[in-house]
Amino acid sequence: MKEGKPFVWILDDEWHEHHLERKMYEEQGIEVKVTRSEELEEDVPLYASIADGVVAQVGFQCGADLIEKLASCKVISIPGVGYNHVDVAAATKKGIAVSTVPDYCAEEVSDHTLALILAVTRRLSSYSRKVRGGRWNPLDTKPIHRFSSRTIGLLGFGRIARMVAEKLKPFGVRILAHDEFVPEEVMKREGVVPVLLNELLEKSDVLSLHVPLTPETRKLINYERLSKLPKGAFVINTCRGGVVNEADLQQLILEGHIAGAGLDVLEQEPPAADYSLLTMEEVLITPHASYFSEESIKELRTRTTQAAIDGALGKDLPYALNLKKMNV
User: Fold this and answer.
1) Domain annotation for the chain: domains and CATH numbers
2) What are the C-alpha distances in Å from 116 to residues 90, 224, 261, 263, 316?
3) Reduced to 3 states, what is the DSSP secondary structure of residue 328?
4) How are strands ordered across the β-sheet holding 174-178?
5) Which of 79, 124, 229, 272 is the most exposed place for a label (fewest CB within 10 A)?
6) pLDDT, tens only, 229-284
7) DSSP assigned state of 271
């Protein structure tokens, strides 16, 4: 509480204005304070102990040390799907719900995944660079295969991967999928072939990644597993950069085993100016943009704010990772 009113503390470097959020909070009689990273050290002693809710943008690390200072907080609302920056176990121990917005951009990410698949398999980036350099030759960028002859492998089969599969079907490609947590009958019902991980790797001309970043999946796609892909395969990553060992990916591209990659996420974002993958003609990199559309951002901001409001007012949180029912 701040001056007798519920109080939400926003930790955010990404969004430079908060008109939409402030309007929603004002309508509920909630006070709000936005803190930038350079203000955090000064603001923690002022606002951490009185915040009924916290909005934690991905750039702010909400570890156990900060969570311990949240004396009256009921919810940490995350603007997005990923929650690696929040210590969920520490929040649970403190009785704080951690809420995400898991499905606001599924359409955009699946569109972006499909765009990357088509762009790298048709080698659009290479063509574009050559034309800009004065070369006009459709036959100097090889090999390019008929897309309908390709096998696409989906590692992970959650909501985004299922949308990717649905959007791929009209192209006539064969679609394989591996997900330890999705029953085979669900995959078959969605029109894809369920396979074990090794078979997925051995048969996928394009490997598209759709898994969360966890201790088990960190650098899961390493030299050994990439080597199992067919020669000339492509790798697409729109989930999390840490899932791929990028040095191993680069090495296998240099060795000629992997034909290229479409990456929307990197282990370090943004990458250093001299990051070697940036210079590779075979690699198309976008700036973690697959979630973005005007519509998805409005939905994200609205739902993030609503979760902070509901949690601060003691209402249930259907998208909480831990405490869905509020005990107030």
Assistant:
1) 7-104+294-312 (3.40.50.720), 106-285 (3.40.50.720)
2) 37, 24, 9, 8, 38
3) coil
4) 193-194, 174-178, 151-155, 206-209, 233-237, 258-263, 283-285
5) 272
6) 999 999 999 999 999 999 999 999 999 999 999 999 999 999 999 999 999 999 99
7) P
For the chain, the residue count is: 328
Give a three-class secondary structure readout of 91-149. Answer: HHHCCCEEECCCCCCHHHHHHHHHHHHHHHHCCHHHHHHHHHCCCCCCCCCCCCCCHHH
Q: Tokens in use for 214?
A: 């966890």
Stated as kind and residue range, the H or E segment containing 206 is strand 206-209
**Tokens of residue 105, six digits:** 């951009």
3-state DSSP assignment of residue 215 = coil
Strand order in the sheet with 75-77: 31-35, 7-11, 53-56, 75-77, 97-99
Q: In whole angstroms, what is the distance from residue 83 CA to residue 63 CA?
A: 11
Q: Is 213 within 8 Å of 265 (Cβ atoms)?
A: no
Q: Return the pLDDT at 328.
A: 47
- CB neighbour list of residue 179: distance below 8 Å, 6 or more residues apart: 155, 156, 157, 158, 161, 187
How far is C-alpha 206 from the chain's CA centre? 19
Q: What is the dihedral of CA 196, 202, 207, 209, to 10 degrees?
A: 30
